[in-house]
Amino acid sequence: MKYFPFSLEQLRIIQAIKNEATIKQAAKKLYLSQPALSLQIQKLESEIDSPILDRRKKQILFTFTGELILDYADKILRLCEEADKAIVYFKKLKRISLTIGSNEIIGTYILPKIIDLFCRRYSYTHVKLEIDCTNCISWDIVNGKVDIGIVEEEEIPKELYNSLYSKPYFKEEIVLILPKSHELKDTYSITKENLYNLDFITLKPNFLGRKLMDDVLKKFNIESDKLKIKLELNSVEAIKRGVQAGLGVSFVSILMVKDELYSKRLNSVMIDDRNISKHLTLLVNLKTHKSQLSGKFYKYCFAILKTRLYIKFLNLDY
User: Fold this and answer.
1) Which of 62, 183, 226, 287 is deepest in the core (most CB within 10 A)?
2) Which stretch of DSSP H or E encloses residue 75?
3) How many Å apart are CA 81 and CA 128, to the nearest integer?
């Protein structure tokens, strides 16, 4: 390690002498005795083999060497101060645990990418992801267990409206997926009457995802109880495999079948030329959403959308 002929203490002394104009005032400012301060100056002058101060009767002037050292002392001490503030700030942020909550689909296909981008931008952050239903996430936000949620707007408990702040984020599109060999594979749109003639694969009735999907379809005047249910499975992944195998068709979030649609392993059609979608919203506690990390994450989510980075990183278009 390279040896330097000066210490930070000596640089602080030089700076204090310049600011206070006298040895006495500089020593008082630094809580040192005059002899102790003068000794440090002498040591530095000895190390660099050059005088720093030009001592006269009523004033102290800096030599050329002294002015040079003073200039660098200001820069070095300013950087030291910035480093100290950064460490304090880092410790403060490190004590904040940022917890993000969402459902399984958003938590699996959207949030990990956003969190990864956020952590690359703010490398000092520590983010946790909680997967649960919108009702549970909403209550966890109110109770301080979750800082921010990305949830279905329609599923937020009404009794929590006065305790939460929500802002629309984006629409999650629901698509009807077909096997690549299906007779309708080249069809752009079908009618609801055609829809009721198809064989469907769905989640089992006791699964929350089944109810949520039925609620979305109901808002678009699609009656789930009229669909011909051929097969009921226990996961969306199983549904995707069933559709690929030609066992039927299914309504799923487009986020879950991006790769399959892009690679043509599955096809999709519209219903009555309309997009079926549900609104996703960013949800925070009215009392705590201004914390530093949650505020940064909240703004970063919208920054991604505004700059359309989500096309590349979140794959919301295909």
Assistant:
1) 62
2) helix 64-94
3) 32
